[in-house]
Automatic annotation (TrEMBL):
GO terms for molecular function: methyltransferase activity; nucleic acid binding. InterPro entries: DNA_methylase_N6_adenine_CS (IPR002052), RNA_MeTrfase_RsmD (IPR004398), SAM-dependent_MTases_sf (IPR029063). GO terms for biological process: rRNA methylation. It comes from Algibacter mikhailovii. The lineage of its organism: Bacteria, Pseudomonadati, Bacteroidota, Flavobacteriia, Flavobacteriales. It holds the Pfam family Cons_hypoth95. This is Methyltransferase. The keyword Methyltransferase applies.
Length: 179
């Protein structure tokens, strides 16, 4: 994987093969960040990266100037890799090793943007639980956005607070906003 833009542009990051991850493709990530770039100033937002995996999305935010980034993942290897990479590049990324659903139930941390990249084989009920917890616990700041990455074969348009979706290859991003 590589960083698309910002101060770490073109840096390659090689994750260990044994991590249980499916990093967002460069094409999909570039398209996603083009959308986000039109909505926010990167240096003025806080980001919560759920199911962070390799930290791919968080590195992109850090490279573009975001200074308040928190990654949540339940896998120790993923958290260790994110910590090592963010230390190496001196990126302002905090990590929390936790089950994402338990974290969302207990946290009061609010963010401008919450990005979730759960396993593509999640059930609709599991996908639905993410926006349910985010909105019922008021975890988005004013004009905040929840983005869930999923397979193009999964339809989340019926879930409360769904705004729109964008498809890139086999990837889809569903955007959720407070009503």
């Amino acid at each position: 994987m590589r960083i698309i833009s910002g101060i770490y542009k073109s840096r390659k990051i090689v994750a260990p093969k044994n991590l249980p991850v499916r990093p967002t493709t460069d094409m999909a990530k570039e398209s996603l960040f083009n959308i986000i770039n039109n909505l926010y100033y990167f240096d003025a937002i806080s980001v919560l990266d759920l199911f962070a995996g390799t930290g791919n999305i968080s590195y992109e935010f850090a490279s573009r100037g975001t200074e308040n980034i928190t990654c949540v993942d339940q896998d120790f290897g993923c958290i260790k890799f994110i910590n090592q990479t963010s230390d190496k590049f001196e990126m302002p990324i905090q990590t929390i090793k936790s089950d994402v659903f338990k974290f969302l139930e207990k946290t009061s941390m609010q963010s401008n943007l919450i990005f979730a990249d759960p396993p593509y084989n999640f059930s609709i009920e599991q996908f639905s639980k993410i926006p349910e917890l985010v909105f019922s616990n008021n975890l988005l700041l004013e004009d905040g956005l929840l983005i869930i990455e999923h397979s193009k074969h999964t339809d989340l348009s019926h879930i409360t607070n769904f705004a729109y979706s964008k498809s890139y290859g086999g990837n889809m991003f569903s955007f959720f906003e407070a009503s």
